[in-house]
Amino acid sequence: MGEPILKASNVPTKLAANEGQSVVKSELDVDGVTWNVTCVSMGNPHCVTFGLKGSQNLQVDELDLVQIGPKFEHHELFPARTNTEFVQVISRSHLKMRVWERGAGATLACGTGACAVVVAAVLEGRAGRFCTVDLPGGPLEIEWSEEDNHVYMTGPAEVVFYGSVPL
């Protein structure tokens, strides 16, 4: 999937960089609630959160994604809008996520999002560089290589819809 882009202005986000030029575990106010977020681009912007400020492990199945997702997507600090990944840490090598994709809403999977999640988990000290990431559409194996700084994704591809459009 390539190298992650971590420079805040290139993600892009207007959140102030707090780790060199990156935004790592920064506070973001969303509708009066403070979330900790890490911003990563995999060629498209991602706002990754492991939960609220001061909270323990996020329980992603308890989230009302339809209610909270658009508030992240259209937040003023993301000038190009953003994809948002809500992440639960199962272990240092196992993460569970739900995603709100900009322009699409809640989806079953997001490969760039799963990659961004592992990068964010490493940057926040929550996981190692090789993880299984569970998504509603199935698991992906993600590795952020120290050797070449690229993020690698392995997983199945499955048809979820057939359709036709009259022209």
Radius of gyration: 15 Å
Helix content: 10-25%
Number of E strands: 9
Q: What is the string of helix and strand elements? A: EEEHEEEHEEE
- Shape, principal axes of CA atoms: globular
Major sheet: size, sense and barrel closure?
9 strands, mixed
Report the uncertain regions.
none
Mean pLDDT over the full residue set: 95
Q: Report the portion of residues in β strands.
A: 35-45%
What does this protein look like?
The chain is mainly β. The protein is 13% helix and 35% strand. The protein has helices spanning 65-73, 111-123; strands at residues 26-30, 33-41, 45-52, 83-91, 94-101, 105-107, 130-135, 138-144, 151-154. Strands 1, 2, 3, 4, 5, 6, 7, 8 and 9 form a 9-stranded mixed sheet that branches. A hairpin with a 6-residue loop joins strand 8 and strand 9.
Throw out a few tags for this protein.
167 residues; mainly beta; 2 helices; globular
List the helices and strands and how they pair.
Elements: E1 26-30, E2 33-41, E3 45-52, H1 65-73, E4 83-91, E5 94-101, E6 105-107, H2 111-123, E7 130-135, E8 138-144, E9 151-154
Task: Summarize this structure briefly.
With 167 residues, the protein is mainly beta.
